[in-house]
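Collaborator request, handled under Task 6.
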Amino acid sequence: MQKTTQSTINNVVWKACDTFRGTMDGSDYKDYVLTMLFVKYLSDFYKEKLELLKEEYGDKIDRIEAKLKREKFRLDESCTFDYLVKHKEASNLGEIMNKVLERIEEDNRDKLEGIFRSIDFNNKNKLGDTKERNSILKNLIEDFSDTRLDLRPSMLEGNDVIGDAYEYLISHFASDAGKKGGEFYTPSEVSTLLAKLVEPKEGDMIYDPTCGSGSLLIKASKEIGSKNFRLYGQERNGQTQALCKMNMFLHEINDAVIEWGDTIRNPLHLQDNLLKTFDVVVANPPFSLDKWGEEIASEDSFGRFKYGTPPKSKGDFAFVLHMISSLNSNGKMGVILPHGVLFRGASEGKIRTKLIEDNLLDAVIGLPANLFFGTSIPACILIFKKNRPNKDIIFIDASREFEKGKNQNNLTDEHIAKIFDTYKNRKEIEKYSHVATLQEIQENDYNLNIPRYVDTFEEEEIIDLDATKTNIANIENELVEIKSKMSGYLRELGL
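Structure tokens returned to the collaborator:
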């Protein structure tokens, strides 16, 4: 029997999006499509488990029930995808679908509580009146009834097939949603690069304080090559946090702790009323966030702003300081930021100086422009490390090495490998990288603008003025000759 491939899932589910196109933005309908994929996955997973247990225990209902309780998900017959198929013609289909989601949450409260909080299949404002709404939802159920979309564990081509399909869909939604899309998704190749740079290892606890749909965390976990890790995240957007939790389960990461809330104003990963600390911290926080929570900085009970308070209208360093406070004594972090953090003065300049003086900054990496959804501005990656043995900082200017795409530029595997190798081995490459001493940094007044350290200036070819004058004279003489010949031809023609 043919296995279900990622390509099959991609195609079937992307086709399901046609149900919504023209009625709402991708940033809205993604929640309906991805939720339905998750429900189909839960249903097929549960269905197969139940079939296997019935084969093993026959009519011994008590034994089957006891075994099911130990499974990672439990579904009643009234909240499966098959139940939705049976009721697809119902006049109150939206209500039925909402009740199914509520029941799934209730029966799996320890894992799935709040996961469907932001989705409403009976939303008149988004899905139209009853008749239109029922038509859309019926089509959605039928799209997911495609016989090729068999998500039983035994039918999947690989462990990550569904999760990777989910990521594929999220990336397409992000692309379609433009600026809104950038809020919940970091492009795959950028996530891969950052994950490599922080070098996670077995046993690590990995944290993302602005985790979006979880792509950075998942990419970091894949670098480890085993299941021996723990993932933690926080996301202030409820819909996106729900996407992240689903994403974790679909990647077979069942113990991730993903909280909902504002990381700066209300950090939720705590231990003994202090910030929990981690081996690895990664993030792509919102660029230069206005009104990030400056009002709480002076009274912050977690001591995150000992290096200074960032300006009210630019929250970049607020996230950096939170991340540094969340690192354990040997921790390492990577963060994506706009270039302004490298050279802006005032309070940001003071914070930057203190971080360098405390020997926390390890690398500054300039990325190409137009990599991210919703913004064309170039970004950089900063790598920080606790307990650093060396006191230099490597600067890498990767801004000119990219693959041009239709809407976005891309980093290829070769570009990523070059950046990582240069960083790992602290290579000096002409017009690409430079390892700067602390003295160099000080001489530049702690300004980290990359061109101060990596000279990418291309000398223009020296022009030989005498030769140029001679060429011009020759061209002018040729022009006189041509004009003379043309006049002769015209005379012959009587013109």
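The cover message to the collaborator said: "The longest strand covers residues 327-338. The two ends are 85 Å apart (CA to CA). Please let us know whether this matches your experimental observations."
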